[in-house]
Design goal:
By secondary structure, the chain is mainly α. It has 15 helices and 4 strands. A hairpin with a 2-residue loop joins strand 2 and strand 3. The protein has helices spanning 3-10, 33-43, 47-62, 65-92, 99-113, 127-149, 155-174, 201-222, 226-236, 238-243, 248-274, 284-297, 304-318, 328-342, 346-362, and strands at 185-186, 192-193, 196-197, 276-277. It has a domain at 62-281. It is found in: Cell membrane.
Length: 372
């Protein structure tokens, strides 16, 4: 006896409450949000993702300490900072030159609140407390930079963020009370946790790899979340999104804060990699390098930041073998110009175009056509 028949027989005064019939299968329990998210994540995994994961995990076991530390770890740390710019520019439409400034600010805060060679300035807090404070303050600074620049668009946003970066560079260079002037801070090494020294090449590589993977999957999830979808809508048509009731300014400032958090983590990893922080780390050249890395890989792909970082680090280390030491930047500039001219979407855009061409060339003639 179904629900509708029972309701019809009950009638008035029978004490039976009419219950509408449910469609078949509606009584099954819906999967929990966490389970549904894991199912979507597993369905998005492809064979190439597993191959890349196997490669990056097994890389330090076959590479020398030089390639593990100076090539692998440095590329991942720079890629994490470039990922913050890729998120802002590719999905928010806001090209900021201050991402290295945020990363450098986090590094300075780590040196000031933690331990360094300058005992007169450094407060000597525990490394984990100094790390949390440094990342939090850098995120707040990034949100402040966003609050200043989100009311502009295009070249004006670039100029405002460049002005902020240059101002911080001169502040760090000329202030000796807090930032120790031109000398900066040295002897800022990664911690030792449970007997594991992260100053060694292999442990430090896996530390940077864990942070890079976390940042990559966080961005991949965020751009599919309601916030990321709204941010992309604001990028395409801010007036329409404003008319639909979205707070354009708040979304953009929040995007700067998210990007600042990623850049701050990358800045902490870079200061642990270098062992020091100085005004030259946050100069105009360093800010332009992050833009070059993001454009090399492709601003529309989160993985492009790491691809561009690998190419940049390889050129930076081995271009000296091709030209004089004073002119190796010409090689980096030439590669950058060639990629931009042939593929505005960077190396990943070039690779996708090549895949489409190869797929079209191997497709049999007549397949997919409509025969009348």
């Amino acid at each position: 006896m179904n629900g509708s028949a029972a309701a019809a027989r009950g009638g008035r005064g029978s004490g039976v409450v009419p219950v509408p019939s449910l469609p078949r299968g509606a009584g099954a329990a819906a999967p929990a949000p966490a389970v549904a998210w894991w199912r979507r994540a597993l369905s998005a995994i492809r064979l190439r993702h597993l191959l890349v994961l196997v490669f990056v995990v097994g890389y330090p076991f076959v590479a020398t300490p030089f390639f593990t530390f100076q090539i692998g770890a440095q590329s991942l740390a720079l890629g994490l900072i470039a990922l913050s710019l890729t998120f802002l520019g590719g999905y928010g439409g806001m090209v900021s030159l201050a991402q290295m400034t945020v990363a450098g600010f986090a590094a300075y805060m780590l040196a000031i609140f933690g331990s360094s060679s300058n005992l007169a300035i450094s407060l000597g807090w525990p490394w984990w407390l100094a790390l949390v404070v440094a990342v939090a303050l850098a995120t707040v600074v990034a949100a402040g930079i966003g609050w200043l620049s989100v009311r502009t668009e295009g070249i004006y946003t670039i100029m405002i963020t460049l002005a902020v970066g240059v101002a911080f560079f001169y502040l760090a260079q000329q202030n000796y009370t807090v930032f120790n002037g031109f000398q900066g801070f040295s002897r800022i090494g990664p911690p030792t946790v449970f007997g594991l020294d992260f100053g060694q090449p292999m442990p430090f590589y896996f530390l940077v790899l864990a942070c890079a993977l976390a940042g990559y999957f966080f961005v991949k999830h965020l751009i599919r979340a309601p916030f990321g979808i709204a941010l992309q809508g604001i990028r395409d048509n801010p007036r329409r999104m404003q008319a639909l009731g979205f707070d354009v300014t708040a979304h953009r400032v929040a995007a700067y804060a998210v990007a600042g958090f990623l850049a701050a983590v990358g800045g902490v990893l870079m200061v642990w990699y270098n062992g020091r922080i100085s005004p030259g780390t946050v100069g105009v050249g360093a800010m332009i390098n992050i833009l070059i890395i993001a454009v090399l890989g492709g601003m529309k792909h989160p993985i492009g930041a790491f691809v561009g970082a690998i190419v940049f680090v390889l050129l930076q280390n081995f271009a000296i073998d091709l030209v004089d030491r004073e002119r190796f930047n010409l090689v980096i500039g030439g590669v950058f110009l060639a990629i931009v001219l042939f593929s505005p979407d960077g190396l990943l855009g070039l690779w996708q175009g090549l895949r489409h061409r190869l797929g079209a060339s191997f497709t049999p003639r007549g397949r997919g056509r409509i025969h009348r």
